[in-house]
User: Which sequence fits this backbone?
């Protein structure tokens, strides 16, 4: 019996990931979520380090808590994927390819309000992937993955509401498209 080398195993993983991303699976969609959590963590770290203004100390504390939450979510979600015999992105290259969230070094110079609003939109974008992954997990009969994703959706919705409150907004204000009255 021939044993595959680590290089061959990784090549097979990359090939399968490409197939899964073109015909979305719960695992592939969840891989996007893991990758988004990596970018979100970087953005939260930057926000914690650079936020300025009258509320900076309170915001640094909040951003620190959200940062730890994002790290824990990424770790737990990766473990669930592995427990489900699925593969999780694990390299910077993969995180870059699969993340929808974007970071930019100039953001550290933006106002606290701008940073908070940007994070609100990041959590909302994350939820787009989470809700799709929940539907796919249900379709693929992966109840453990679906339940974990539902918890992530709950946490993201709570984070959106908290951040929106800081801006004086209702939880969905500025996120849901308004119906045009013609």
Assistant:
């Amino acid at each position: 019996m021939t044993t595959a080398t680590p290089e061959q195993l990784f090549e097979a993983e990359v090939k399968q990931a490409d197939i899964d991303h073109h015909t979305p699976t719960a695992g592939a969609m969840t891989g996007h979520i893991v990758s988004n959590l990596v970018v979100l963590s970087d953005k939260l770290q930057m926000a914690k380090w650079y936020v300025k203004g009258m509320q900076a100390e309170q915001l640094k504390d909040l951003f620190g808590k959200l940062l730890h939450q994002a790290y824990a979510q990424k770790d737990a979600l990766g473990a669930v994927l592995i427990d489900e015999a699925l593969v999780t992105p694990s390299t910077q290259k993969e995180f870059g390819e699969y993340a929808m969230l974007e970071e930019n070094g100039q953001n550290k110079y933006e106002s606290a309000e701008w940073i908070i609003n940007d994070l609100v939109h990041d959590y909302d974008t994350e939820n787009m992937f989470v809700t799709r992954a929940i539907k796919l997990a249900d379709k693929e009969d992966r109840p453990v993955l679906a339940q974990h994703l539902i918890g992530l959706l709950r946490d993201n919705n709570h984070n959106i509401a908290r951040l929106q409150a800081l801006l004086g907004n209702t939880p969905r204000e500025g996120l849901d498209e308004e119906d045009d009255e013609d």
The domain at 8-166 is CATH 1.20.1260.10 (Ferritin). The chain has a mean pLDDT of 91.
